[in-house]
Amino acid sequence: MPDLYCPLESAINRRVREVELGAARWIRDSGMCASGDETAWVLATHSGDFFGRFAPTADEDRLLATSLWVYWGFAFDDARCDNGPLSTRPAQFNALAGRVQRAAEAPSADDNGERFVRPLQNIVGLFRSFGTPTQVRRFLHAHRAWLSGVAWQIGNQARGHMPGLDDYLAMRLLSCGGEPTFAMLELATGAEVADGELHRPAVRALTEMAIMVAGLDNDRHSLRKELSHGHTDQNIYSVLMHHRQMSLQEAVEEATRIRDRILVRFLELHDRVRPGAGAALGGYLQGLRHGIRGNAEWGLRVPRYLSLGRLPDPAEDAPLTWAQAPSDSSARPLPGAPSLAWWWDRDLA
């Protein structure tokens, strides 16, 4: 793997250790893990460290609540999405996703025996206790988007379909979980961006690019483990190998160019939008930067991706090296990805 290009500042919340200890107690009491092994792998996501890099200024209570959703999301993904019994049964997964989403929206909804429902309701209850109605609603909309992307992915798996590059990238924007993760920035910091600013095309493009860079980085982080377990159905590398007849190494190099071109565009557009942003929007844009860098740092060290055995190994603590220049700095839209081409529109505002 080539070194990652990421010329963004590194930061981490000083309360991460306390948050991870509190999260471990909550996870063990929540009932969402069916075994000790499941609990070990969920804890090995180090989701407090992960989101502490997205929100380095959040207070401890807010960081704990938002980190709990990341832990919950990894647990749900492992048991119900990627490799669980519903991973090739789209009808059954869609029914579950609908119940889970409604339970997040309605505190009175019954769990119907689904072990992930009550913990999710507890987390969203924490969000309601300190977030504004707008912030909570934005998170719930993003949560629905994530589940729709997972349903798309499972549908492909069920029919043995390898999506083309454009479909894969559009699906990955949703299925990687970036929508709810970045929506939690407002909940973590307390700052609410006005609708007119958050939904500007340029800000939406920046959000989507941050999600995509992080999603492609996660494809990279998880590749070694997926190869060792035979779980390589849909990722950026399998898409390129299948549709462009590339070797794995060629696919790695091409995926790196795709990722770097998107990051270069993010940096350029960010630097045009940021000077005119108010305090709330400026904080949100900084959160996108922290998220890209933090996700990269976390993924290069976290046991979830580095451990190949039955149980997770300790986290890595070796120094990280970074590429000094992007592998592709073209200012043109990605070829073969028309659904993303609007990110490069010159008149984005």
From TrEMBL:
Give UniProt keywords alphabetically: Lyase, Magnesium, Metal-binding
A GO term for molecular function: terpene synthase activity
Q: Which Pfam families match?
A: Terpene_syn_C_2 (PF19086)
EC number(s) from the headed UniProt entry: 4.2.3.-
Q: Which parts form a coiled-coil structure per UniProt? A: none
Query: Per the similarity annotation, which family is this?
Result: Belongs to the terpene synthase family.
State what protein this is by name.
Terpene synthase
Source organism phylogeny: Bacteria, Bacillati, Actinomycetota, Actinomycetes, Kitasatosporales
